Amino acid sequence: MKKPVVINLTGEDEKYNNLIKLIAEEQKKRKKAFVKYGGEYKNYIKNSPEKMPLKVVIINNYDSLYESNPEVLDQLPELLRDSTRYGIVFIFTANSTRSIHSKINQNCQNIYCLHLKDSSDYTSMFTVRTKLVPRDIVGRGLYESNK
Fold first, then answer.
1. Is residue 7's pLDDT more than 70?
2. Please, is 93 exposed, middle or buried when counting C-beta atoms within 10 Å of its C-beta (0-12, 13-18, 19+)?
3. What angle (nearest 5°) sits at the alpha carbon of residue 125, between those of residues 123 and 129?
4. Cα separation of 11 and 100, whole Å?
5. What integer pLDDT is reported at residue 141 of this predicted model?
6. Are 12 and 73 a contacting pair, CB within 8 Å?
7. If DSSP states are collapsed to H, E and C, what string results for 61-105?
8. pLDDT tens sequence across 57-79
9. Mean of the per-residue pLDDT values of the chain
10. Residues 28-62: tens digit of each pLDDT
11. Rounded CA separation 2/101 (Å)
């Protein structure tokens, strides 16, 4: 098993731009590899004798990334739109319910929401309106899946 690559991008525009290019190149490579399998990672894994690992990109503290790189809204939505199809999964963490812009949020299939300061924020986080609030126990939260 390969070790994960950790890149700290706070205040480093060049590294951020290189990461975006790297992800876009990986998507193109996978798109070509998956042509015979309906263009889908799941079909490729089921039917191909070769295996290709699922790639996970974690963007921790999205608020800070967006603050230092506002062009993130121009680059990420396009990558996110097809990323799952090509076996690239994005995970975002944020400090506020309004931190992740709708251009990003609309491409997210699952939303996990841990403890929020204001219980009314749970309602604004999900597409299905809810009055549920998790008990105040460490690690508790709510989850919504678009599938």
1. no
2. middle
3. 40
4. 19
5. 86
6. no
7. CHHHHHHHCCCHHHHHHHHHHHHHHHCEEEEECCCCCCCCCHHHH
8. 998 888 888 887 787 778 888 88
9. 83
10. 999 999 999 999 999 999 999 998 999 999 988 88
11. 32
Report the distance separating Cα 43 and Cα 24, nearest Å: 21
- Other C-beta atoms closer than 10 Å to the C-beta of 66 total 19
pTM for this prediction: 0.79
Q: What is the largest CA-CA distance in the chain?
A: 50
CA–CA separation, 106 vs 101, rounded Å?
9
Distances, alpha carbon 35 to alpha carbons 32, 85, 100, 106, in Å = 6, 12, 32, 26
